Structure formats: C-alpha cells, structure tokens
Amino acid sequence: MVLGIPKKTLVIFAVLIGVVLIYSMGSDQSPSEAQSGSGGQDCRVKVTADILNVRAGPGMDAEIVGKFRQDAETEAHPVVRNGFRKIDESRWAADEFLEPVSGASCG
Questions:
Q1: How many helices (H) and strands (E) does the chain have?
Q2: Cβ pair 89, 36 in contact under 8 A
Q3: What is d(CA 38, CA 33) in angstroms, rounded to the nearest whole number?
Q4: Of 9, 18, 21, 88, which residue is most buried, by most CB within 10 angstroms?
Q5: What are phi and psi of 84, to 5 degrees?
Q6: C-alpha separations of 3 from 6, 14, 15, 99 in Å
Q7: Which secondary-structure segment (H or E) carries 55?
C-alpha cells in the first residue's frame, strides 16, 4: 500500500492516465505541429476511421505512438509503404483510413 491506496489500484490508474495521454496526442495537434511534418509537401489528409493508430513504422507490428480521431486532419507525405502513409518522421498511419482533403496533392 502507498498512502493507503493498494498498489494494484495505483497501477491501473497509471495505465489509464497513459492511455488518455496517448489518445490525446494524435488529435490535439496545433496547425504548426501538423505542418512541420509535411516536408514542404501539399498533402493534407482527413481520418475516416473512428480511431486511427499512428505507428512508429509502416506496419501493423510497429509500435503505436499516437492516435487520430475521426475527421482529424493532418499534413502528410505522399509516401505510402506497405499500405501505410508517412505522416512525419517515425509516424505512419494506415492509408486506407486517410483521404486527401479537397485540393491536396498526395500523389
């Protein structure tokens, strides 16, 4: 027990806080953060899935490093590898759940 709280309860609470932080990372980008990932490209995409995992590499086995909510928009690269679109350095998302916004050039 720590401060009268069982350790198991503290661990569950810490995990929940971590999940909330990861979930909010992908959906609360400011415009300057989103644009910095484009590398000068004119590719902007919109999320069509309810929740879209952002991964450290272009594959289902890559670590989840963030999430986007449905209808979130972000700058992206025209690079697609193994069905994943490059969002930023070490940030990839499944291309099937991303659609270019009107006027975007995503190749």
A1: 2, 8
A2: no
A3: 10
A4: 88
A5: -115, 135
A6: 8, 15, 19, 49
A7: strand 51-55
